[in-house]
Amino acid sequence: SKTYNNLSNNSDMKKTIIVVLLVLSAFFSAGAQELGGNYNENLDGPLGDIRMIRESGVTWIRGFIDIPLKFLIKENNVITGVVEDKSRNSRLLRQYVQAQEILGDQVKFMLSFKIPFLNDAGLVPAEETGIWEHIFRASELILETCGMGDHIELLVMGNEPMWENNDNANTPQAEKEAAAVNYKAFLTEFAERIDGWKKKNGWTFEVFAGSLNRISEVDSPIIQAVMDVVNENDKVDGLDLHIHAARIAQCADDFRLAR
Q1: How far is CA 107 from CA 57, 79, 113, in A?
Q2: What is the mean pLDDT of the chain?
Q3: Are 63 and 107 in contact (CB under 8 A)?
Q4: Is there a smaller number of Cβ atoms within 10 Å at the N or the C end of the chain?
């Protein structure tokens, strides 16, 4: 079994959002729960599903954007710059904002930043490489495009980092642990930058770290790095626990371990 230094259990414990993948056409009574629709990278999806979203009773919509894939320049599998016009002219970002404007207060929108660092080892680079700055710049542009920062309730830093940035069976454990240290530092600085952008633009969305899933099965030091950032950084409001499970017990195990 795996153990992590869990989320603080005192009175000011950070929030945990549990994202369960749902098919919007499968409706059922949820009692006190809030139901959401997950569109992953298909940010144009909600705009085409307005009627179904309204009739379903969902109160959250979630999507993610792959920052390196969509908005960064890569050379020999290394991030080297930002394609600024791609963000400003992004149809996906524009349609995600349009869907929120149509649905209004009925549905809250969250956006996750997917950030695989793409280098050959699959590990997280140190700050001095300059790669972080390209990611920060692209992230700021995304939030500025079509007023995205005004249209979301929740921003998640990261998407399954334990697989995207720490999952290479041939990488020595010491290198994985070093990458986890770098990832914690990256998230800490990312939270500082986002806090500055929020103050500058008057944005009010919450900031979570994540998204983590199958944490009761996956052995990765990056999971602890994410937990530490959520616990220690007052600019991070909570943890995104993104459930992938075939059995109820898997959900319970992940939630118990996170707690």
Answers
A1: 9, 35, 20
A2: 85
A3: no
A4: N
How far is Cα 59 from Cα 57, in angstroms, rounded to an integer?
Answer: 6
Q: Which of 70, 100, 69 is nearest to 85 (CA)?
A: 70
Range with lowest mean pLDDT among 34-43, 91-100, 239-248: 239-248
| Residue 248 neighbours by CB under 8 Å, 6+ apart | none
pTM: 0.87
HSE value, Cβ hemisphere, 13 Å, CA-based, for 118: 19
In a 3-state reduction of DSSP, which class is residue 75?
strand
Is the predicted pLDDT of residue 24 greater than 50, yes or no?
no
Could you tell me which residues come within 8 angstroms of residue 16 by beta carbon, excluding any fewer than 6 positions away? 7, 238, 239, 240, 241, 255, 258, 259
Question: How far apart, in whole angstroms, are the C-alpha atoms of residue 172 and residue 210?
Answer: 24
User: At residue 26, does pLDDT exceed 50?
Assistant: no
Task: Please report where in the chains the tokens 């649905």 appear, as a residue.
Answer: 103
Distances (CA, A) of 27 to 23, 40, 43, 54, 206: 8, 19, 22, 12, 28
Q: Evaluate whether 169 touches 223 at the Cβ level (below 8 Å).
A: no
Return the closest-CA partner of residue 46 out of 58, 34, 29: 58
Quote the tokens at residue 56. 């379903």
pLDDT digits (tens, 9 = 90+) for 170-191: 778 888 888 899 999 999 999 9
* Dihedral pair phi/psi, residue 255, rounded to 5°: -65, -40
Q: What is the pLDDT of residue 166?
A: 64
Which amino acid, one-letter code, is at 12? D
Give the pLDDT score at 88: 85
| Residue 21, pLDDT above cutoff 90 | no
Measured CA to CA, the distance from residue 207 to residue 91 in angstroms comes to: 24
Q: 10 Å Cβ neighbour count for 5?
A: 9
Strand partners, 209: 157, 239
